[in-house]
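Lab notebook: predicted structure, single chain.

Context: the supervisor wants predicted structures on file for every construct in the current expression panel, including those that have not yet been purified. This is the next one on the list. No modifications to the sequence; it matches the entry in the shared construct table.
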Amino acid sequence: TAIPFSTGAYLVVQLGRIAETVAGYGSSGIFLWTLTMGLCIGVGLFPVYANSILCGWLFGWLPGLLSAMTSYTLASAIGSTIARRLFGSRVDAVISAHPQARVIREALLHSNGKRALLIVTLFRLTGAPFPASTLALSTCGTPRAAFFLGTFLGLLPAVAFFLAHIPQSRLRVL
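Prediction complete. Output recorded below exactly as produced.
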């Protein structure tokens, strides 16, 4: 948690320099930014809040919202893949060894697709740290469709509200 906090604070402090750099790439700057943030958030290097601030500052509300939500969807795919490959079998073994945990996982995540979607959406709405929540939801075997759609729906209200209150850079990035 120290790395994302430190890198996030650094990015926010460097708003002006980052805006100049992204503006230098012209119209492809938003795509490069979105891909870079998706990768960095997905591996746990940057926090979600820093990307939301910078997307609003760099691109304005609607393009910033599209960039932020696309980067979070990409980050969830990357983080989920890493978590499932590194820890999925271990977590599954622990849950399988405890009948009560197995019953709870089945009831919450596997018995009903709509229920799994609702749980992921509500979990993301809580504002739990992105890497930790991605790890928890992925390694418990959350169905991928519910995971990705729930992540998108759960993050959307807070990100949209947040971006609506971020002033845009005076540099013409888009």
